[in-house]
Design brief:
Strand order of the largest sheet: 27-24-25-26-29-22-21-31
Low-confidence stretches: 1-12, 142-146
Largest sheet: 8 strands, antiparallel
Oligomer: single chain
Distance between the termini: 55 Å
Structural class: mainly beta
Number of helices: 1
Number of strands: 46
């Protein structure tokens, strides 16, 4: 059973002596915490009621943890301590040898030292403090069949799309660890926090969005007795849907009709917006380009009804759909997308029009986020936000408000239904030879099969950048492979290393460049599809990597990229070792995508 003292405070010259079940040899464990490391002594003695002190250690005012040797009580420093931290101390005593040794936090044992007194058995424990500084002790010994900590109040909180916090309490100072996963087999174990505490707090990160997780908590006390809780669950949140205004980057439009507004935004259309370009009168903005507010898959493109006219519906994933209505669809201004196609945020999808109920009236962009049944969704209740500068902090544009779009079109977009660039920048790829398969490219791993886009001003991305691509390699381990490459010592280059890690490069020259392990060993494996995103903020000098919508690594850099005249190549690069496998849905943005935009992009591709 647990013995003697639980979180007992000792102050000014206080002495406590307790009788314990006698033993001749064995290990005694206890935990100690002091409020200060600069005032007074706190000592723990193993004793015999007749023979006196046998072995003892002290937490000293010089922050040393010392034991004392032989009858002369020669001090031996074996560690140091910090105030307000728990320390697990072990004493291994042998009456046969008249020696003892100690350890801290289950570390290596000290050498054996001669006991300060001789005895046939230990039958007392004594605690001593000589100052007003509080000292606390929990005493447990496995020699006395100590029981494990008692776990209680297990709970999850701060549940976000990719993280959660797990808390619990124990009845004695103990370590903290959580085991978690999608089933009761768990599969992932957090790093052990060896600090001995009563209240436990562990943050889980890198979780999947909108996923049920099982978890259990683990704690070990000073005697290494482990307690494991029952199974608990939590469900991660859906990431906020981050939207960009559906008109051109840098353009100013105003809301001509907002949410719950007359004459038409009611019922299923209550949470909708009508946009018109600033400085135009009726129909002067007819034919203006319309851009995808977020990435997703096209589920409708064309005539819908006399009320709606021509519409485009984008499935953003996670149960969100975007409806853009009244667009034109004629020879001069055709709808630019087709059902089943994936689109990137900022990609041209059509042109502002007056079809449907707008016929005979003024052209405008009608936009609403809706569910699968076509009912518009309350943006605040459903965590849907336009994130362009100037939009109110709740993400909801207001009627009459004027807003400037930051819906930047990517420098290149390859959907690989063809090798044409869908960004409008005409960065069309050539190939050696035709390596297209339905909806993606399949490269055979030879030096004569890759894609190449000639250099252009839009590809000289030496500032902010976001690189997005799917890949499913087949020759990881064959050498250092370039899946995408512009310039090793220029704008950027990506290299799949032999161990399945992903390296990133940019720079000024062969002697002045930045290199970084964007993804660790094993992140990229043969025949495993993965969505990779790299972002570079050239103002903050901050670069990030993401896998399947989740942030993985963040680092800073001190060497800027430079613009080069190199072509962009997919499947071959500076290393000279060709990529074998598939790639799809590649985009390069000249801006930094947010964490939520990247998460949205991944779930939209599902």
């Amino acid at each position: 059973s647990k013995l003697l003292i639980r979180k007992h405070a000792l102050t000014t010259s206080k002495l406590i002596t307790r009788t314990v079940p006698s033993f001749t040899s064995g290990q005694v464990y206890f935990s100690v915490r002091r409020d200060t490391s600069s005032i007074g002594y706190f000592c723990v003695y193993l004793r015999n009621s007749t023979d006196g002190h046998i072995a003892f250690i002290c937490f000293k005012p010089d922050a040393n943890i010392s034991l004392y040797e032989s009858a002369a009580q020669t001090e031996q420093v074996f560690g140091t301590y910090t105030s307000n931290m728990w320390y697990r101390i072990g004493i291994d005593y042998s009456a046969t040898l008249d020696q003892y040794r100690v350890n801290i936090n289950n570390g290596a044992w000290s050498p054996y030292y001669a006991a300060v007194g001789l005895t046939s058995e230990i039958n007392q424990l004594r605690l001593y403090a000589d100052s007003n500084a509080n000292s606390y002790l929990d005493f447990i010994s496995p020699s006395y069949s100590a029981s494990a900590p008692v776990i209680s109040s297990v709970s999850s909180s701060n549940i976000a799309p990719n993280s959660a916090t797990i808390t619990w309490t124990t009845d004695e100072p103990s370590t903290s660890q959580v085991e978690y996963g999608p089933t009761t087999s768990y599969g992932t174990l957090t790093t052990l926090d060896s600090n001995l505490v009563y209240s436990h707090n562990v943050n889980l990160t890198g979780l999947n969005t909108d996923t049920l997780y099982h978890y259990r908590v683990k704690s070990k006390d000073a005697a290494n007795n482990e307690a494991i809780s029952a199974d608990y669950t939590f469900h991660t949140a859906v990431a906020p849907l981050s939207l960009r205004l559906p008109f051109g980057d840098g353009e100013s439009w105003h809301v001509s009709q907002g949410n719950n507004s007359s004459p038409t935004h009611n019922g299923n259309e209550a949470y909708a917006w009508d946009f018109n370009k600033d400085g135009t009168s009726c129909n002067e903005d007819k034919g203006e380009p319309v851009f995808a507010p977020a990435s997703g898959k096209i589920t409708s493109a064309g005539w819908y009804s006399n009320a709606w006219g021509n519409i485009i519906i984008i499935n953003y994933g996670n149960g969100y759909y975007g409806r853009i209505a009244h667009v034109l669809n004629d020879q001069a201004f055709p709808i630019k997308v087709k059902v089943g196609q994936y689109v990137f945020a900022g990609e041209l999808i059509g042109y502002n029009g007056d079809t449907g109920t707008s016929a005979g009236g003024c052209a405008h962009i009608h936009y609403q986020t809706e569910n699968a049944s076509g009912v518009s969704l309350d943006p605040i209740a459903n965590n849907i936000k336009f994130i362009d500068p100037g939009v109110p902090s709740n993400g909801v544009p207001v009627e009459g408000g004027q807003y400037i779009s930051l819906n930047t079109t990517p420098a290149i977009i390859y959907h690989f239904d063809t090798l044409l660039d869908s960004s409008g920048n005409n960065n069309h790829a050539s190939f050696q030879p035709n390596c297209l398969v339905q909806g993606c490219i399949a490269l055979n791993g030879t030096v004569d099969e890759y894609l190449q886009a000639p250099n252009s001003a839009s590809l000289q991305t030496a500032g902010d950048i976001s690189i997005i691509f799917w890949l499913k390699p087949e020759n990881v381990g064959s050498g250092r492979i370039n899946p995408i490459d512009k310039a090793y010592f220029g704008e950027f280059s990506l290299v799949i290393e032999i161990d399945g890690s992903l390296s990133y490069y940019h720079g000024q020259s062969t002697s002045n460049y930045f290199s970084w392990t964007a993804l660790t060993s094993g992140s990229i494996a043969n025949n495993q599809g993965v969505r990779v995103v790299i972002t570079r903020d050239n103002t903050a000098k901050l670069i990030k990597s993401y896998v399947n919508g989740m942030l993985v690594v963040t680092t800073y850099y001190g060497i800027d990229p430079s613009a080069t005249t190199n072509p962009l190549r997919i499947g071959l690069g500076n290393t000279g070792i060709p990529y074998k496998g598939k790639q799809d849905e590649i985009a390069i943005y000249p801006r930094v995508l947010t964490d939520d935009e990247i998460n949205n992009d991944y779930y939209a591709t599902q």
